[in-house]
User: Fold this.
Amino acid sequence: MEQHEIGQEFDMHRVRKVVEVRANIVNELLDQGWILHDIYISNEYRSVYILLMLDELTCPRCGAPANIEVSEEGDRYRYICTKECH
Assistant:
């Protein structure tokens, strides 16, 4: 897996996906190769993390192309496999 260092410059045209999540899942996504782009405080005084993915998303179970769905609150996510393996 390609490692991305904090402060590394990259071409924004390489970004495949952007998500906004809460603190309870940010580390999990960072471990999966997402890159922390920014942090801001919401109107409810909660930290919101903006993460970027430079690679195509793949299903963690079967490796097929996938998408990610993040709850409206940003506290849960799930991968949606194109092969519907879940």
Summary: The helical segments are 23-31. The chain has a mean pLDDT of 87. DSSP finds one helix and five strands in the chain. The radius of gyration is 13 Å.
